[in-house]
Design goal:
Blueprint lengths: L7 H14 L14 H4 L1 H9 L11 E2 L4 E2 L4 H28 L9 H9 L4 H16 L48 H17 L6
Length: about 210
């Protein structure tokens, strides 16, 4: 499997952490709905962190998602800065999870991984992972590199309502609250932001966990 940004081992750390934060049937017996693992939310994070490895960058998709909108100089500057910040957060965060899980988070037992994610030193990265897991699981599949089935019907499996073809629907990580939030003027992205905030309260008990 080819990654834009992650190495294979870093991708596994992110995959396993996201699966604990947004579990599906594989990770939580009795769960019926797909979670971050089933949605391949790690691919969403990888495409965001590696967005500038292609041109135009993988920021705002149009149509079926096979094309992306070129960025203005101002957008490019802001996104380059934000993506660089996210890359650093993932680099340091995945290394921290490994240390907290006795050296290998992805290979550790479930209880050890839960312990690592609950550690106060991991709270900031856990919150970022949770936001991206929610966005990757319930956002438009084109941002995981997949065509959205049923485009034109308004909704797709594992998504919030879509924009009409030709309008960008990617959550704008360079604006909003600074935690991977969407622009406030974008109705679909705002819905995803509100959903993420509500999910955080339920699952994580707020930003302090």
């Amino acid at each position: 499997m080819t990654w834009l940004h992650f190495t294979a081992d870093r991708a596994e750390v992110v995959r396993e952490a996201m699966a604990l934060l947004v579990p599906g049937p594989t990770d939580l017996p009795g769960e019926r709905e797909p979670g971050a693992r089933e949605a391949d939310a790690v691919r969403y994070a990888d495409r965001l962190l590696g967005a500038f490895r292609v041109d135009p960058p993988l920021i705002y998709a149009v149509g079926s998602g096979s094309a992306h909108v070129p960025l203005s100089p101002e957008q490019r500057h802001g996104w380059l800065r934000r993506v660089g910040e996210l890359q650093a957060a993932y680099r340091d965060g995945t290394a921290l999870l490994d240390r907290l899980a006795d050296g290998d988070f992805a290979a550790a037992g479930v209880e050890v991984r839960h312990r690592a994610l609950r550690d106060p030193r991991a709270h900031a990265f856990r919150d970022l992972l949770f936001d991206h897991a929610i966005e990757g699981t319930y956002g438009d599949p084109v941002y995981r590199g997949r065509p959205a089935p049923g485009r034109g019907t308004g909704v797709t499996p594992l998504t919030v309502p879509q924009h009409p073809a030709g309008r960008p629907a990617h959550p704008d990580h360079a604006t909003g609250t600074g935690r991977g939030s969407a622009p406030y003027g974008d109705e679909t992205a705002a819905l995803l932001r509100d959903f993420t905030d509500a999910a955080r309260q339920v699952v994580l008990g707020g930003t302090d966990g």
